[in-house]
Specification:
Keywords: ATP-binding, Folate biosynthesis, Ligase, Magnesium, Metal-binding, Nucleotide-binding. With 423 residues, the chain is α/β, with parallel strands linked by helices. The chain has helices at 8-16, 28-37, 55-68, 97-114, 120-135, 171-174, 178-185, 204-213, 259-272, 278-287, 312-321, 339-346, 366-372, 387-395, 407-422; strands at 45-50, 73-76, 88-90, 93-94, 139-143, 160-163, 194-197, 216-219, 225-228, 234-240, 246-253, 295-299, 302-307, 327-331, 350-356, 380-384, 401-404.
């Protein structure tokens, strides 16, 4: 097939069917293609960010602080909400179609040279690494897609490796044992390099793996911590620099993103070896945002709160952040998620359940979700054919809705909102 004139959309369509399976764990094929490309990353500092939850928030805060300090950054995250370009962001701007097409062409040529088939995610991640080599930013922030040890991002030897949290998700691939999951995530650690774990109750396997490979591990509570001030508007940080000297930073603005993730980012910044002023820290933490995380929007005068929480840990955090409030909850989930546990975690903030069918591969139906509600559920339960149908039906009441459960659920809500705005 001649792909020389492919548009970005044509590339993405081809990538979706280019390999025998959507997920193919193992780095051998990608390593062969990566080696064939012989990429030069120059003096770019590499940060890999793994974890069950908090990866996107950590990357966003890292990026905001570094850019406030005058550094040029590149962020690679997944999945995207609306357009693929969201996955590669250079200095705050989404990568252009032309840059992505050039990257896909380069990966495809290298792949054909060595006679190897790659999956959608593998091509996408290798393309992001190719763009890092072309752009050579001061710092590249690379979010791990799944696990760590066998994820394509792990082709890179990070200057600092970060694990935000360790929870249970992607059970089909990683299992439901936190010790095993922690070991997989710690696969991004490197000998002699710093590694930061922000989980407050980390599985022992994190420290064991760090010890095995000779990584310099810095753990939340043991090596760094934060203190929220009484006024609730500021926080202070205590951590260690690369020489294990204590560092204290006072009077930082509380971010809109999880404070524990902010402390983890703060510790990683100390170890990265970049100069960052207190002013840059304050500006970065104050302005960091992630689409789809506690994102307040409006549709036809109805306030919406959008959040991609899709596993029990994320749902529990969300319920805690919104404690004391009650919402009509529009929930759509994928069939391979722990739907019952997510609904149980959200239940304290739910006045009504509005369950929706996700018309995507692995999408759960509203009918199936209804059978998975916790037995103790006493809220009214309604079923809808789609996210859009639910929001349109409820919008006239002008009561705030919480739209949650999946990237797909939130993406559908954004499309509805933007369709109305462009109307």
């Amino acid at each position: 097939m001649n792909k020389a004139s492919f548009t970005l959309q044509q590339w993405l369509s081809w990538m979706e069917q280019a390999h025998t399976s959507a997920i193919d764990m193992g780095l051998t094929r990608c390593q062969t293609v990566f080696d064939a490309m012989a990429l030069d990353f120059g003096s770019t500092k590499i940060v890999t960010v793994g974890g069950t939850n908090g990866k996107g928030s950590s990357v966003a805060m890292f990026d905001a602080v570094l850019r406030a300090a005058g550094y040029r950054t590149l962020c690679y995250t997944s999945p995207h909400l609306e357009v693929y370009n969201e996955r590669v962001v250079i200095d705050g701007e989404m990568c252009s179609d032309a840059q992505l097409v050039a990257a896909f062409c380069a990966i495809d040529a290298a792949r054909e040279q060595v006679g190897i088939s790659l999956s959608y995610f593998e091509i996408g991640t290798l393309a992001a690494l190719w763009i890092v080599a072309q752009e050579q930013p001061d710092v590249a922030l690379l979010e791990v897609g799944l696990g760590g040890r066998l994820d394509v991002v792990n082709l890179m030897d990070a200057d600092v490796a970060v694990i935000a949290t360790v929870g249970v998700d992607h059970v089909d691939w990683l299992g439901d044992d936190r010790e095993v999951i922690g070991w997989e995530k710690a696969g991004i650690f490197r000998e002699g390099r710093p590694a930061v774990c922000g989980d407050l109750e980390p599985p022992l396997s994190i420290a064991h793996h760090a010890n095995e490979v000779g990584a310099k591990l810095f753990q939340a509570s043991n090596d760094f911590s934060y203190q929220l001030h009484e006024d609730g508007g500021q926080w202070s940080f205590k951590g260690l620099d690369s020489q294990h000297q204590e560092v204290a930073i006072e009077s930082l603005p509380v971010p809109q993103l999880p404070l524990q993730n902010a402390a983890t980012v703060m510790q990683a910044l100390l170890l990265l070896g970049v100069e960052v002023s207190h002013e840059a820290l304050s500006q970065g933490f104050a302005h960091a945002r992630v689409r789809g995380r506690l994102d307040a929007q409006t549709y036809r005068g109805c306030p919406l709160l959008l959040d991609v929480a899709h596993n029990p840990q994320a749902a529990s955090y969300l319920a805690k952040r919104l404690e004391g409030k009650q919402f009509k909850v529009v929930l759509g989930m994928l069939a391979d998620k722990d739907c019952t546990a997510v609904m149980a975690a959200l239940a304290p903030i739910v006045s009504q359940w509005h369950l929706v069918t996700l018309d995507v591969p692995r999408g759960q139906t509203a009918e199936s979700l209804a059978t998975m509600l916790p037995a103790s559920t006493d809220q009214a339960v309604y079923q809808h054919a789609s996210v859009g149908d639910a929001i349109k039906q409820l919008a006239s009441d002008k009561e705030q809705l919480l739209v949650v459960g999946s990237f797909f659920t939130v993406a559908d809500a954004y499309r509805l909102i933007e369709g109305e705005a462009n109307g």
